[in-house]
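Two proteins, back to back. First:
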Amino acid sequence: MDADLALYIHWPFCVSKCPYCDFNSHVRDSIDVVAWETALLADMAYEAGKAPRRPLTSIFFGGGTPSLMPPALVDALIAAAEKHWGFAPDIEITLEANPSSVEAARFADLATAGVNRVSLGLQAFDDATLHLLGRAHDGAEGLAALAVAQQHFARVNFDLIYALPGQSLAGWEADLRRALALGTTHLSLYQLTIEPGTRFETLVRTGELAPKDPDEAAEFYELTHDLTAAAGLPRYEVSNHAAPGAESRHNLTYWRYGDYMGIGPGAHGRRQGVATQRHRKPENFLSAVKRNGHGAQSEDALAPAEKAREALLMGLRLETGINLPQIAHKTGQSEDQLVDTATLAQLTQHGLIRQDGTNLRVLPDGMLLLDRILAEIVVA
């Protein structure tokens, strides 16, 4: 897995901005597709000149809403990526999609272009919840899009958001059982978080929206773990559940701190110890490409301590945890520089984390407190 090499392509445009979303997404009246194809191909070529020279194991089209991209543009970007790096025989090519009927109509052409895995943003099944979440589709349209996706792609994931204001535990259990019966081998199940700068944050601040308290949200999380495990789609990362062998190879590259390149507005990358970031605003990205031949805003070599910190923060999200000697070797730190041993002993005593030889992993009770645990255990 250390040889995995991933490419992330960001398409920043959406039809509308969802009230819970803090991703780099933008609404524009019109999009010059030719200009964007030219810019993204130039940005990719620049990365190809800097990146490791080995075949790609995954490509991920994220956003924004990549399913709004013309299939011909997706095809051109995949073809260019193959020319630059070559493809591993089992390459995974994922595209995020909204489940509208307009976008579902593109699925056949996207599959022909080379996409072999799609991730659908269903988010909920009932129309009232979808309205609360600001989604453009209704429940019937979402299920219809899922059926079309399953016809055209070998692997399908869909997202759901839970622990929503007003949602009962019994209601979530019914929704989750329904999701598990739909036949996909991967589910991304996200507990609602109120992100800074979103419409939901404003509503919480003004008292118009009341999120779940932590104890109640924990019940939703534990139920989610139990039901998915019983159905053969156990949790392998905090919010991701899959049948054995159906895990997202692209996301595993992130979590295992492998090399990945990021192109397009706001995209991040980590290639051979260098942290890259593109200009976030679409217009600024285009201007940078015209000016410099690429959209990079920064390219910073990471110190060993920073690499170790990132590798731990990512790897401890996984159910399998991390291998301490491997992290030390990959980041140039010694093992005793990776974690705070006194804090580790306390968390172990409380049944939140466990070290078995060289393996360190967060236990199920600890996953409920993951952000706090990571902040305490990782040496600053």
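And the second protein:
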Amino acid sequence: MRRAHPSHSLHAQSGVAPALSVDPTPTTRKAPELLDWLGIVRLEVDAHLIEFFEDKKRETEAISPPTLELVDEIEALTMRGGKRLRPAVAAAGYRCVRPGHGMERLVELSASLELLQSYLLIHDDWMDGDEVRRGGTAVHTSLQQRHGNPHLGSALGVLAGDLASAYAWELFLEAPYPRQSWPDACAMFLQIQKQVYCGQQLDLVGDANVARMHALKTTSYSVRGPLLLGAFLGNPDAEQLRALTDWAEPIGEAFQIRDDLLGALGSADSTGKPGMDIPHGKVSSVLSELRRSTRPEDREPVEVIVGRIDVDARQLEQAHACLRALGVVDRLERSILELRDQALRALERGAFNPQGRGMLTELADKLTVRRA
């Protein structure tokens, strides 16, 4: 059995995100005396994940020692990166409905969201042929290198993703949902996964409806799903759920546009993954806006590298310069700001506790102004 982690004191402040005080436990002894609430969410989730993986390694050792390589890969990916933004969104959703102290009702859900993301990232990297994730080797690539066999490594990567999915469900089933909220929470956890699969299919085939793909693939499991799953822990009313959804929809779209800009223009140093979406032929909001707003002859430096993974650094730099010169980047940045403002207006209309409102206000910036 995993032990319960000590809770941290959360102090509500009117209209602003709360601070959390930290006890000097073994997992936080190097932390400052006071950390912001986002830092505490990460500390608590990481502590729970560390303990969870220790349990899974003991369990796997007893069942099939060779399978530990899959557990190790999932753990490495999960623990080496990520800002725990989905757990933060879930925490804010809960605090909008039930203000209070500590993370004791949130850690299982939060950890399950991180394992769900690991599962989706493992499969996504394999499908896209990406070899780098979070500044390290993608899971399928790591297993290919270990076994010296590309096909076997890819197959094992798929299995690692499947196992991460099972772990996500295992953690989710431990979350302390009120009896009356459990059916809605379970339906939501299922729904966001089905929507991600639909969105991934649209992404793979290059469907022209980028907004629909974003809503299914990103908003669903990155913003709306975690937000409502967190709220269900507090047994929300219908008005609160509507307002939370009205905040989540534009923030999810803005989050994906930011992700697309990073995927097209980012570097491995800044994002943990090289900006190769255009050479990979990814039909993102960047290419969609470029083709919608410019003439074919003007966008040629970009179009010539679409789908060409052998592109050199000079061609990539020319494509980036073209995107900026044609105003594509500026227009997408304005769209992000407009979507953020739309979400904040929805937040003002919501019947939320000031503590949760402050957390969502902070997250609106965190999710849309991020650089990695």
